[in-house]
Amino acid sequence: MNVLVVGAGEMGTWFGGCLSGSVAYADRNKTNAERAATATDGRAVAVDTDERFDAVCLAVPIPAAEVAIATHIDRARRAVLDLTGVMGPAVAAMREHGPDHERMSLHPLFSARHAPGRIAVVPDASGPVTDGIRDDLSADGNTLFETTAEEHDRSMATVQARTHAAVLAFGLASETVREEFHTPVSKQLSVLAERVTSGNPRVYAEIQEAFGGAEDVAQAAVRIADADEETFEALYQEAK
């Protein structure tokens, strides 16, 4: 099996490195494709290559997903899949442009530097190629679980957008304190803030734009800030 990975950033490179077949990388930045190829014993190809592959995987930023699927799907002989992170629009685009293809949407719920981990899977039209890719990901130590595009995108509003907003808000509101003062809770929040802010801010911004949720966190914080003792106790129980 040979696979074209479109988008040779951290996640695209990680994905290509999990595959047992031959992997080619295409990226608007040729250096990225060459770097990914070197890291995973693959090869770099032009972003407008005329080659065709058993499968094409789109590992592009969220806003580029639908256009990238339409642009590159003709390079896929058998299967098309994505790693973009928003499944509803991606699955719809793959159905529209590749109705006869095997189709699968994947969302690794971790950054490439923290691999392996859990991967959400929408097997929209399964077949031997997508099954083989799933086997490769499992063999690399990842745990795959199936969902629907609708359930995934609804869940991401909480597990990504609201979570990131809450952690970043803590980071903005907190002050530096001596290590001895930290409680178990504050220490964990500080560690989370450090982890979130060590990533790519553009990626986090795209997640917020795609799923929303920051407004919900802000409104909840206002409810807590404005609460008297009785109301606070009620909010505490509500959160519980």
From TrEMBL:
InterPro entries: 6-PGluconate_DH-like_C_sf (IPR008927), NAD(P)-bd_dom_sf (IPR036291), Preph/Arog_dehydrog (IPR050812)
Keyword check for Oxidoreductase: yes
Stored Gene3D superfamilies: 6-phosphogluconate dehydrogenase C-terminal like domain, NAD(P)-binding Rossmann-like Domain
Keywords: Oxidoreductase
A GO molecular-function annotation: oxidoreductase activity
Record bears the keyword Oxidoreductase: yes
Source superkingdom: Archaea
Protein's name according to its UniProt entry: Prephenate dehydrogenase
Protein's organism: Halocatena marina
